Each structure stands twice: as C-alpha cells, then as structure tokens.
Amino acid sequence: MENTRCFANRFSDYRGALLPGQSVKVIAPTVVATVDKILKNVPIDFSDCDGGLYDGPAGVAYMLYHVSECPLFFQHREVYLKTAKQMIDLSVRYVDAEPDINMRAAFLLGGAGIYAVAAMIYKSMGLADFVKPLTKFRNLWEVCAPINFLECGSDELFVGRAGYLCAALVLRQKLGIEILSKDQIKSICQAIIESGKQYSRRKRKPFPLMYSYYGTEYLGAAHGLSSVLQMLLSYQDMLSSAEKDLVWQSIDFLMNQEQNCNWPAELGAIIERENELVHWCHGAPGVAYLFAKAYLINKRPQYLDTCIRSGELVWQKGLLKKGPGICHGVAGSAYVFLLLYRLTGNSKYIYRAQRFAEFLFTEEFKTGSHSVSSVFSLFEGLSGTVCFLVDLLQPDQAEFPLFSVFVCTLWPL
Hints:
Layout: H1 24-41, H2 52-55, H3 57-69, H4 77-96, H5 101-104, H6 111-124, H7 131-138, H8 141-144, H9 161-175, H10 182-202, H11 225-234, H12 241-255, H13 284-298, H14 301-317, H15 330-344, H16 348-359, H17 363-368, H18 382-393
C-alpha cells in the first residue's frame, strides 16, 4: 500500500563520503535563485501582513535576515536586509494596530515574534532603532504572566508562554544582551509550571506537568508538551530545585510515550504505522529537540539515544509529501540530521541532510508533493527551505529557525 504521507527513501545510506554535488558552488546559486523567486511572488502590502512569522511576510523577512547573516552571501547582504526591513516594518505596523493584546503577545502567529525579528533586522543593519521593537517585545511579558491568559491554552509555542520565552531566547542569542529580567523570566516560568500542575491534577494525568491546546493534549513541538518542556529546560537556572524535578520527571514520562521511534500527536493515542505523523509539528522530528536539549544539559546517554532513534525514523519516513517547508515538510525533517550532526559530529548526518536537499529538487518531489497554500512562507514553504539550505552550508551553526537549542542559558549573577 502506498504511503500517503511520505515518498519512499530510495537513497543508499552514508558510506564514508559526502555528496560532491552538494557543494557551496551548487547550493549557493540555488539559494539565491530561490530567494529571487520568493521575492517576486510575496506581496509587500499592509493587507497581506496576517500570519505572523508562521506564514506571513514577517517570516520571509526572517529568512532574508538569516541568509544575510551567512558570510557566503555577503554580496547580497545589503539588498536582502533592505527588503527584510520593508517587510518587517509593514508587519510591525500591522501588529501595532492589532486590537487583541493577547495576539500581540503570540510568538509565531502574532506580535511578539514580529517585534523580535524587527529588533534582529534593525540591529544587523546597525540601526539604533532596534530598541523600539525590542521595548515593545519586552512590554508583552505582563500579558502572558496570568495563568489563564488564553482560553484556548496559555502555554504552547505558537501563541502561548513557551513561544514568548522562545522568542526571548532567540533575541538573547542574536543580540547578545539580556532581554528580560530574572524576575520576569521566573514569573513566566512559574506560570507555566503552575498551569501544568493544575491541569495535571485536574485531569489526573500520569505526568506532573501537562497542557492542552483547544482541548487537545498535544505532545509535539507545534502546540504540545515537548516544546513547553524544552523552554523550561532552556531557562532551568531560573527554576527552583522542586520545579526542576517536575520538569525532568515530565521529560522522562514523555520519553516513555515513544512508540516505534515516534510520538503520537496527542497523549494516549496509538500510532498507526502506515499513517503516522513524522513532522516537526507532530512527531519525532520536533520532539527530538527536547531530548537534544536534555542531553546537552545533563549528558545522560538515553536522551541522545532517543534523538538518534528519531533520526533513523526521519531517514525512513521523512521525505514528506506536504511540501518543502519546515513545519510538516522535507526541510523540517532534514533539520533533524543537522541537529544530530551538531550533537554527535558524525558526518553521516550531513550526508543524510544532503540527500534530503537533493530530493527537494527532483521531479518526483515536484510532481508528487501536495501544494501548500503558503508556498513562499517560512514554516510551510520555500523560505524555510532556504534557511535549511543555508544551514547545510554551515552545519556547525545549523539550527531549526527560531527554535534555539544550543544557546547558553546560564545567566550571570
């Protein structure tokens, strides 16, 4: 029976040599051509600014920023940043006018992410104005501090508290300055933990911390437990020892939900092997980042082993039919290999990422993949693909866009 979710992986696995056809000479012109294609097709207009970083023009602006930061594209840097600024300026105006303050505090779907990327672009251009969007971002911490600030679920990555903490982490990494005070971070972390404890008790869960989004108990990176725990780990030096214990217990509970190297989209579901989700948003390609973070912090081998098993599943089932993007597409799968390369130093993972990059440009992929509505966007479309191709050229610094795992989290006293 044909798998409706992924193409068969017919590539031979690593035999000790990387692909000569995936050199800078080949990939760099592909990046430039793809960026040109995106810019010809993305309208820069106030009425098209919806969608946040996920599938709005702000995500395209982030991609341009990411390419401009890579020394290999230095000759395009000025033009890319100038275009990125046009897009992000409009997006900032759009979210400034957003009447719903809660949407303004959303990371991937609203204002917090847009303000964060605006600050990064302005800083990269040497503009002192970067402080303006940064201040707007900082002022949002109070919005997400109340335990139930969102009826749909206040803690997940796209619109909730975990996303706000994620944006602050990326900003700290890119700008090299403290973004929030210790007290502000602590209050948000405590709200996440208290919210998770309350939900777990109320629903009699086996996890000490659990969350739901629109009534569903997701486990994956997009709306689920794994990214919430990943953000708590990223700020673990702000937690009390009792809070840390709850986080680590929850991580181990989540590890035990593994089914055949994968995780169900929601708690308690049984994975149907022929129809399983192997996406960054739902499944192993996103959950792997939590265990990568756990391994980086305490070096327990079972966390690395979990990431490696996830990578094996992605090699088998990660050539996804849902487009080229990073949320549920081929580039999102391939980022797992770049993550594993950084964790292990094993060149096999660069080779696997190269094979997935190669597949993106085959006839089989172009004719057999489903069309996506936001074909040029960061999370569903080609802007995310561009980020992946750039990172394939700099694997020692590669990171899934806006989802920092390797940033140092120790705060100075």
